[in-house]
Structures are given as structure tokens and as C-alpha cells.
Amino acid sequence: MVVEKLRNNRLSVTVFLIYTGVFLLAPAKGLQSINNSFYYLLEMVQVLPVVFILTTVIDAWIPKETILRKFGKNSGFGGNILALALGSMSAGPIYAAFPISKMLLEKGASVSNVVIIISAWAVVKVPMLVLEVNFLSFDFMVVRWILTVFGIFIMASLTAKMVKHSDLPGTKAQVDQTVIIKDDYCTGCGVCAAVSPIYFAMSAQKAYVKEQVEDFGSTEFKKVQTAEKKCPANAILVKK
Fold first, then answer.
1. What mean pLDDT is predicted for residues 154-175?
2. Can you give the pLDDT at residue 175?
């Protein structure tokens, strides 16, 4: 029981052990670490409630279809540029980006675009660029910005290949709810697979969903809706 609790809270336990070790080896540095931690915790208490309110407002006001179209997997290079702009125009510390990024993922934003938003938020925010010009010159800022953005796009592409949308906690359920086949209703007629073979297939005389819809404005999504209407057993449920 104790071992299970320690395993479930291993990050907190690790942090506690590190603080304890610092206190034992260097009490002055340990006290300084505690003071710094309280400073950041106080900042988070002041910032995060506003971020959560903003996230709730965005979640309620912006339809899922819009997020999918602008930031989804099929948004293309235009979606990458929009994600870069969103991260660059942001305000506040980097940890404020995480609740917003989670909300975007839950509404269908691609992993690569979320990586771009977080990365831009961290290293190419406009206020940061202005200070960089003042302290390090305009030429320095431009060269650093170009190289950094190039690196961000590479990192986003690699992350999207290594981490799937459904691997992220709290997002799989939302993705899986887009298209559902009710097994008890399905008669295995194969109409859905014939109408939209990209999204539907047959196995053991039952239809199943091969891939979830991420672009509600695409021609293929219209085929999914057609398959829903033509299903003689009303076994297909399509949600937006």
C-alpha cells in the first residue's frame, strides 16, 4: 500500500528528497531554494486562475470545428504559422501555456501545432524580442529568431511523429467520441465501408472505425455523414 502510494507520487517524493539532500549538504542554499519555490508558487497562484478562466471562455466560445480547421492535423503550413503567431503574441509565464495547450488538444489541435505554440511562447514572444533588440541589437535578434523558428518547426514535426494524439492523457476520450459504431446495432451490411473506406472497415462481419475525423469541413467527413444516414440499422453516431 505504501509502495503504491510512493509510486503514484514519485515526482513529489523525488522533489522532497532533493530538497532534503540540499538542506543536509548546504543549509543556506536549501533555504534559498525554499524561498525561490514560494516565490514561484505565489506567482502561479496569481496567474493560473486568470488562465483557467481564459481557457474556459475559449473552450465555450470557439467551436471544435474552428480549432480543427485552424490548428488540426490537416491545417497544413498555415496552421503552423497561426500557431507560431499565437505563441508569439502571448503574455505571461510559460506554464500559463499548458492549460491552454491541453484545451486545444482536447478540441482537436494537432500535436505539432501545440508544440509550436508552447515553444514560441517560451522563446520568441514579441515582448522578449523587443528587449532582445534593446540589449543585444536588431541583427542578433533576427538571426536568433530565424534559427529558433526553424528549430521549433523541426522539433514540432519530430514530436508529432513520436507522440500520437491519443497517447496524451485526457484527450483520447474526446477524440474517440467523434465517430462511434454501436456494435449491438451493426448488422455487418458494409454500407459505411463502401461509402467511406477511409474511416470505416469491416472485421468479423462488423463495422469498425479505422480513423477519427479531424477535419469537419472535408469531403471525407461529408461521406461519413452520408454513411450515418444510409446505415439501415442506425448503428453510426457522428458527433462534432
1. 73
2. 46
Terminal Cα-to-Cα distance of the chain (whole angstroms): 42
Would the pLDDT of 166 be above 80?
A: no
Task: Compute, in degrees rounded to 10, the torsion defined by CA atoms 192, 194, 200, 206.
Answer: 70
- Taking the CA atoms of residue 184, residue 190, residue 191 and residue 192 in that order, the dihedral angle to the nearest 10 degrees is 70
Look at 233 and 218; give whichever has higher pLDDT: 233
Q: How far apart are CA 209 and CA 207, in angstroms?
A: 7
Contact 51, 100 (CB under 8 A): yes
Strand partners, 236: 181
496552421: which residue's cell?
A: 79
Question: Which class is domain 177-238?
Answer: alpha beta
| Residues with Cβ within 8 Å of residue 88, at least 6 apart in sequence | 120, 121, 124, 125, 126
For the chain, which residues make up each domain, given as ranges? 11-50, 62-169, 177-238
